[in-house]
Amino acid sequence: MKRSTLPARAQEDPPSGVQPELAGALHEVSNALTVVLGWLDVARQRMPAGSARDAVEVARTHAHLGHRIARSAIGAEPPQRGSSRRPARSVARAAVLAVSPQADGRGVALSLEDGANGHDLVRDVGAVLQILTNLLLNAISFTPAGKGVTLSLRDDGASVVFSVRDEGPGIDAERAATLFRAASSTREGGAGLGLRHSAELAASHGGSLELASRGPGAVFELTWPVGEVLSQAGRAPPPRQPSVAGARVLVVEDDAAVRSLVEFALEARGAQTIVVASGDEFDAIVTAGAPFDAALVDLSPLEGRATEALESLRSSSPGVVTILISGVAGGVPPGAETLVSAWVRKPFEMSEVLSVMGSLLASPRGKLDSVPFFE
Q: How do 294-297 and 321-324 pair as beta strands?
């Protein structure tokens, strides 16, 4: 079976701007986010509709957002433009739900007023949520107990305007003049980066963030492009995920939580998994004889001898599909490029791993180059 050659970027070490200490920390954060996302997905699938499932969905949405930010920060995934679309009403509701615990803790009432077409799809949902979350947390921080914060929506031609209004003391003229440039914050615990970063993020996605009123009761307006208008009847069914049922899969992973998540996800979809946590365990399983259809390999347990180990796996299982599930801490070892079919970097979602594996297992001989590559 022909193996795809990894792109040059996948063979490089961590980006030059990432210091070794930070790279190690990001590796651990990647593992944690992978596990959190996986088990939140499991919890969501098992819960009936209701407030508990809504809370899990909010947590999953923001864990997913953190996952994308982490991957972008380490150069494992370029920032996506226009790739995600969601109804404006849904995005606003998600933002309000996300900060509800903070509002409840301060005795501040949150409300959502929707004056826009609920089927207007805004683009780059993750960026919208980042900005709205920051605006709402700011508003809650400056609003006295017993008062309220309101997020409202309105149509503005090819854009939707999200307006956040608080009932705080307002912003003085001197502070307002440098609000999106200053490196200091008047919010307790703030670093002064939120509004400046939010304005830059909005501009980079074709939107804008403005102070519409200094108050008393400050008002911030986020104007965001509309991707399209989607009718209820026009909703397409979600794509069917390629199957891994019946596959015999070797999992090489030294993080116990990630091992547990991967094993659960694969077996829940009908795969047979054999899990190892060290190089010695890997050698014992590979030399035992029974071939594998696929292997998910974190390079950490094979440090210093990954190429040799992958060659032995290929010898014992000539048709094996090998997928790396490592983070930023290292690249593909020299000589191992042709032994690897794809690389799904941590932090990942199990849906990514399952999709890549299913596609590779279903691909006809010699056509693996067409399978999507995840960095």
A: parallel
Stretch 231-240: mean pLDDT, rounded?
Answer: 47
In-domain check, residue 47: no
In a domain, 55, yes or no: no
Tell me the two tokens of residue 179: 């609000």
How many CB atoms are located within 10 Å of the residue 366 CB?
9
E-only strand ranges, 214-339: 219-229, 248-252, 272-276, 294-297, 321-324
Q: Torsion angle, CA of 294/277/257/358, rounded to 10 degrees?
A: 0
Range of the domain at 131: 85-232
Which pLDDT tens digit goes with each residue over 123-175?
Answer: 888 888 888 988 998 899 899 999 999 999 888 778 889 999 999 988 888 88
Please check whether residue 10 is in contact with residue 343, taking contact to mean a CB–CB distance below 8 angstroms: yes
Mean per-residue pLDDT for 78-94?
68
pTM beyond 0.90: the answer is no
Co-location of 253 and 344 in the same domain: yes
Going by pLDDT thresholds of 50, 70 and 90, the confidence category of residue 283 is: very high
**Domains held by the chain: number:** 2
Listed residues 178, 211, 232: the one ending a domain: 232
- Residue 345 maps to a domain: yes
Where residue 278 falls (left for φ over 0; alpha for ψ -120 to 50; beta otherwise) is beta
Say if residues 310 and 297 touch (Cβ distance below 8 Å).
Answer: yes
